[in-house]
Amino acid sequence: MKRTRTSLAAVAMLATAGLSHAADPLKVGFVYIGPASGAGWSYAHELARQEVQKTYGDKVKTVFVEKVAENDSERVMRDLASQGVKVIFGGAFGFMNGMVNVSKEFPDVAFEHATGYKTGPNLGIYDIRTYEGACLNGTIAGKMTRKNVLGVVAPFPIPEIVRNLNAFTLCAQAVNPKVQTHVVWVNTWYDPPKEREAAKTLLNQGVDVLMQNTDSAAPLQAAKEAGAWGFGWDTDMSQWGGDAQLAASHLDWSVHYNKVIADVLAKRWKPGNVWLGLKDKAIHYDHFSAKLPADVRKLVEQRAKDIASGKHPVFAGPLVDQAGATRVRAGTEMPDVDKLKMNWLVKGVIGNLPQ
Q: b/e per residue, 233-254, with b = 16+ CB within 10 A?
C-alpha cells in the first residue's frame, strides 16, 4: 500500500508540474532601434506591445529592448532567444541580416521582421503602407502652403522612404500643381539635433509645410518655432507641435502583432509577407489641428476613404520622374513589386537621390 501511495503521489506531482508548465506564458520579445517612449517609429511599436499585453493578459509575457544599434541587433536577438523568448519582432530595416542569422540558430522561435525582404522557414516579414499616410499629409500640405514650397526631412534613400517622399509630393500636386518638395537626407533614423538642423535648412529655403520621415518630433518643433506647419509621423506629436501639427499619421502595429500571437498560441503560425494599410486600420489619420480649415479636413478624410477602398490609389498613372520619363502609364497603377523597389523621384522633388 505504501508503495502504491508513493506512486500516486508521484503521479500527482507530475500532473501538477504539467499543469504549471502548460500555464507558462508565451514569451514575446520586441527589439526597437530608437527609444520606447516619446514619439515616432519605435514608440508606435511600443504602444502596440502594450496593446498585445493588454489583449492577451497572463497568456503572454512581453519584453522589449530599446535603442538597439543595427550592428548590435544580432547579439540582442540571440540573447532573447537564449532566454526562452519564443516570438521575436525586429522593428527596423537594418535588423534584417542579423535576424536571418539568428533565426537559423533557433528554428523553434518565430521571428518577424518589419520592413525587410528576406524570409526563412521561421522568419516572416511585415510592414505598413506608410506611403498612404504620406499621401494624406501631401493632400493637406498642398492646400495649406502659401509659398508652394514643401519640405521633407528624410533618413535613408531606401525604397520605403522614397515611396513616402514621392507619395507626399504626388498627393500635394493633385490638389495644387504648383508645389515643389525639397528634401534633406540626414542618414539617421533618430538624431533630434541633426533632424532639427535639417528642418531649419529646409525652412530657410522657403518651406512652409514640413514633413519628416525620421523618428523624433524635432522637425515639427522647428516648424512650429518658425511659424510653419508640420505633421505627426508614426505617432501623434501634438504634445510638441500643438496646432502647428496639421494632422498625424500614426501606425497601429498591434493589428499584425495580435494576429501573430494568436497564431503562435494556436500553433498555426507560418512565416508570411504582410503589408497592411488604411483598409486594414493599421494607419489612423487624425489628431487634426484646430487651425485646419473644415473643407481641407473633409477633403483629406475623403481621400483616405478612397485609398482604403481602392477607388483612388496613391501611385496611379501617369507618373513622371525627375528626368521627365514616364514611369507609370495613364490608366494603370504601379504594382506592389515595383513599389517595393522604388528608386526614383517624381517630377517636382527638388534634390538628388543619394547612391
A: bbbbbbebbeebbbbbbbbbbb
pLDDT digits 0-9 by tens, 219-237: 999 999 999 999 999 999 9
Distance of CA 187 to the CA centre of its chain: 17
Is the separation of the CB atoms in 87 and 260 below 8 Å?
A: yes
State the DSSP string of 241-260: HGGGEEEEEEE-THHHHHHH
Task: Determine the Cα–Cα distance for residues 91 and 32; give it in Å rounded to an integer.
Answer: 5
Q: Residue 318 pLDDT > 50, yes or no?
A: yes
Is the peptide bond prior to 318 cis by the omega test (within 30 degrees of 0)? yes
* The amino acid at 146: R
Please give the C-alpha separations between residue 95 and each of 71, 107, 137, 190, in angstroms, as whole numbers.
8, 18, 28, 15
Residue labelled with grid coordinates 538597439: 68
- Please state, in angstroms and as integers, the Cα–Cα distance from residue 114 to each residue in 157, 253, 267, following that order: 17, 10, 22
Summarize pLDDT for 186-207 with one digit per residue, the tens.
Answer: 999 999 999 999 999 999 999 9
Q: What is the mean pLDDT of residues 237-244?
A: 97
Handedness of CA 222, 226, 227, 229 (dihedral sign): negative
Query: In the structure grid, which three cell numbers stand for residue 344, read together?
Result: 526614383
